[in-house]
Structure formats: structure tokens, C-alpha cells
Design goal:
Layout (H helix, E strand, L loop, with lengths): L1 H16 L13 H15 L5 H14 L25 E8 L16 E9 L6 E6 L4 E4 L2 E2 L5 E2 L2 E5 L3 H18 L5 E5 L1 H11 L2 E5 L3 E3 L4 E3 L2 E5 L1 H9 L9 H21 L6 H14 E3 L6 H11 L7 E5 L2 E4 L2 E4 L1 H12 L4 E3 L7 E3 L15 E2 L22 E2 L6 E3 L4 E3 L5
Parallel strand pairs: 1-8, 3-14, 9-22, 17-20
Antiparallel strand pairs: 1-2, 2-3, 4-7, 5-6, 8-13, 9-12, 10-11, 14-21, 15-16, 17-19, 18-22
Length: 426
């Protein structure tokens, strides 16, 4: 115990003397995975195996935290919530950069686009979680964004959302999604390619179902039909693949990613990861070393508070949904009516019901457990928030219990639904 205490003190002294240069990489296509790792991970460090181990591990994780990013509101004012303030609902945005993080193994990647943009909304009663994926090729308005070197960039009326990161950094992506959704987003992070590898290794791999062989020369993905446990470079390739699944579009990639993410959530739950301090410590270390976080998220207290809010959510109440969209020339555009229904539900803290299928990149798992209905046979429904009034007339467009029923052309699934990735088909 004294040795651990001494080591913790030494690390704390090193940190006080100045941050060491670190070269941890980030990740690309894997937002909720990263968030759950951060959120689920650090909590185990505290109170699991004694004060000395907790002190040592916490100091070590803090030492691995990368330089953070300041978020601002539409007027340029910094938005930094109080440390550990996780009462009520909260929103977190995770952007996946395709820059490669400077790793020469990924070739010369001059651009820094947010090819993955996901928003996590946790309800005020911490009983429901919704993860919204925004298609990279969706045309949106980008507001005026702060220039890290001073001043600001002009607003743009119609740009693909994946330009926001290269245009004005993480703060600009947050402002863009806030403008699009009407939600306040006080927490955010950017992940790059190597973070996927490190974090999939830390969790020991994620089992995914594939409906047929997939070989994608663009990403290096090579998996056989059936069950596969993915980690390392194959986990990265699976989450990046577009040409290998569905119709070869980014929309197929989103539903393919949801196959991975829903399995990840089930894996964490079934393996009782919260009671495994060794694995959780590894996850916390991998997350904080490989993600650039906003100032508001760049401390273990906030991460622990998020973990406390998320750890008891039932997997059937974790819903992954693709932001409503439709094809237009050169990309996709928001489907306004359906998007308004979805965003109104989140703004009013209502659970949602998905009535559509899982998307072009996935399908129901025919070998799902007997207790699990195939993904396309029943709507994906979140339980009503326990804070909802006991009486009153349901809003228009809501299902039973105050849940907002989304149109059938809105795609997604819950973490409780077993799905398989669908190989590319013309």
C-alpha cells in the first residue's frame, strides 16, 4: 500500500512539474464506443481495490489526458459547466476524424474531416440514452465559428457537415450540431484512427455478426460470414468500411457501425465490466490517451459522474438512430418533419420509438437468442421517462406512455436488438 501511495505521489509531482509529451492517437468511426469506454471506465478505479490503488490509477489516468478544447456558444462565450455537474439530462458530441492523426501508416491524409459525428443524449431521469448519427454527406448550415488563432470564420449556408471540423475545429462541429438540433452540447471529444485500435484491444474485442463474407480493399477489412470477434486493425476497418457494406454509402456505414456499437453495449453489460477494475482501468487509460476532449469533459470527476448516470440504463433503452435524411444531388439533406419530431423528443426529454428497419447496412440476426425478437419484427421502444407526468394528453405523434413514434423511414435499433452487418450489394 505504501509503495502504491509513493508511486501515486511521484506521478502527481511529475504532472505538477509539467505535462509530458504524449503521442497517443485518436479514433475515427466509433463514437459511442469511445464515450462508453470513458464513461464506464474511470468509475471502477474509485473504491474498487482500496484508496492507494484508486489514488495511483486516478493520477495515472489524469496524466494521460490530452490537451483539451474550449467550447463556445453562438456569441463566442466559453461554455464550461461545473465539474461533476451531471444532474438531469446531458448531451455529449463525439466526432471521428479521418486525418489519421499523423500516423504514416494511413498515408498522406491532408484533410481533417469529421466523417463520423454522433450525439449522445441522456434523459433527466437517467433511464434512456439516445445516440444520433449524422451522415457525413448531409448538407447543413455552418454558423460563424471561432478561429483558434483569433477572430472568427464566416457562416456558411450549405455545406456538408463533415467540413465543420476542418473549418473551425471541434468547437465549430459542436456549434453546427447545436444549430441543427436546437440542443445545448456542453461536452465533446474528437477521436482518430489509432484510438479505435487501442480501445478495441482494451475491451478484449467486440463480437459482431456478419451476414456474408466482407472484403474491403479500401480499409483492409476481411471477415467471414457468421460471428467474428473484432479488435485492433480489423475493428478499425469494420467501423470505417463503406464500400464493403449495404449499398456502399455512408448511410450503410452508419447502420453497420450500429451493429458494432449495440454489441459493444451488450458486451459491457453481460461481462459485468463495472466489477472488473483491471479491464476498466485499461479502458480509462486508452480513452483518455486517445481522445481530444473539451475542457468540460477533460477531468475524471466529470467522467465518473457520467458513468454514474449511464451505468444502470437497460440496454433496451439505449437507442441508436440515424438523423432523418433523404438523398439529394451530391449528398443527403435533412428530412425536416421527421428530424423535428426526433429533436423535439430529445429537447422535451421524451423517449422515442423506432418503427422503421435498421438501415441498408444491417439486418436482423436470424440466430438471435430465443428471448430476443428479431430486429425488424418489433419497434425499438424506449421506456417512458419516470419523471413524465402521470396524467395529461399525449402529444401528437406519440406512442403509448408518452413515447414519440418516429416515421418508418427513420432507421436505427436498440442495443438489445441483435443485428448482422449486410455485405455490399449493387
Amino acid at each position: 500500500m505504501s509503495e502504491l501511495h509513493t508511486r501515486a505521489q511521484a506521478r502527481a509531482q511529475e504532472k505538477a512539474a509539467g505535462p509530458a509529451v504524449r503521442h497517443g492517437r485518436l479514433k475515427q468511426h466509433h463514437p459511442l464506443k469511445a464515450l462508453l469506454k470513458i464513461v464506464v471506465a474511470v468509475i471502477a478505479v474509485v473504491g474498487v481495490t482500496g484508496v492507494s490503488l484508486a489514488a495511483y490509477a486516478t493520477v495515472d489516468v489524469v496524466a494521460s489526458v490530452k490537451k483539451s478544447v474550449k467550447l463556445v456558444d453562438a456569441k463566442g462565450k466559453e461554455t464550461t459547466p461545473g465539474v461533476g455537474a451531471m444532474n438531469g439530462a446531458f448531451n455529449v458530441l463525439l466526432a471521428g476524424s479521418d486525418s489519421g492523426g499523423g500516423n504514416a501508416a494511413y498515408g498522406d491524409r491532408e484533410e481533417n474531416l469529421n466523417d463520423v459525428t454522433m450525439l449522445l443524449h441522456v434523459s433527466a431521469d437517467h433511464q434512456n440514452a439516445t445516440v444520433v448519427s449524422f451522415p457525413r454527406d448531409m448538407f447543413v448550415s455552418i454558423p460563424s465559428c471561432p478561429d483558434p488563432k483569433g477572430g472568427s470564420f464566416d457562416a456558411m449556408s450549405r455545406q456538408k457537415i463533415n467540413n465543420s471540423l476542418s473549418y473551425g475545429g471541434l468547437a465549430c462541429t459542436v456549434l453546427t450540431v447545436e444549430k441543427l438540433t436546437g440542443l445545448d452540447i456542453p461536452y465533446a471529444g474528437v477521436i482518430q484512427f489509432d484510438g479505435v485500435i487501442e480501445m478495441s484491444n482494451a475491451v478484449g474485442g467486440v463480437p459482431v455478426c456478419v451476414a456474408g463474407d466482407i472484403k474491403d480493399p479500401y480499409t483492409g477489412l476481411n471477415v467471414k460470414g457468421g460471428q467474428n470477434v473484432l479488435q485492433g486493425s480489423q475493428a478499425l476497418a469494420f467501423l470505417r468500411t463503406r464500400h464493403g457494406v449495404g449499398d456502399g454509402s455512408d448511410l450503410g456505414r452508419i447502420s453497420n457501425q450500429q451493429v458494432f456499437l449495440s454489441s459493444l453495449v451488450r458486451t459491457i453489460k453481460s461481462a459485468d465490466v463495472l466489477s472488473n477494475p483491471v479491464k476498466l482501468y485499461g479502458l480509462a487509460k486508452a480513452a483518455t490517451s486517445n481522445i481530444t476532449l473539451s475542457d468540460s469533459l477533460n477531468n475524471p470527476t466529470t467522467i465518473v459522474s457520467m458513468a454514474m448516470a449511464l451505468k444502470n440504463i437497460d440496454i433496451s433503452k439505449v437507442v441508436f438512430v440515424q438523423y432523418p435524411n433523404h438523398y439529394v444531388d451530391g449528398g443527403v439533406a435533412p428530412t425536416t418533419d421527421a428530424a423535428d419530431q426526433l429533436m423535439s423528443a430529445l429537447q422535451n426529454d421524451k423517449p422515442i420509438t423506432l418503427t422503421g428497419d435498421t438501415g441498408v447496412g444491417s439486418e436482423a440476426d436470424p440466430n438471435a437468442p430465443a428471448t430476443q425478437a428479431p430486429a425488424t419484427q418489433a419497434p425499438a421502444t424506449q421506456a417512458p421517462a419516470t419523471q413524465a407526468p402521470a396524467t395529461g394528453t399525449p402529444d401528437s405523434g406519440t406512442a403509448g406512455g408518452g413515447s414519440v413514434e418516429l416515421p418508418s423511414d427513420v432507421h436505427g435499433q436498440t442495443a438489445a436488438q441483435y443485428t448482422c452487418s449486410k455485405p455490399f450489394s449493387e
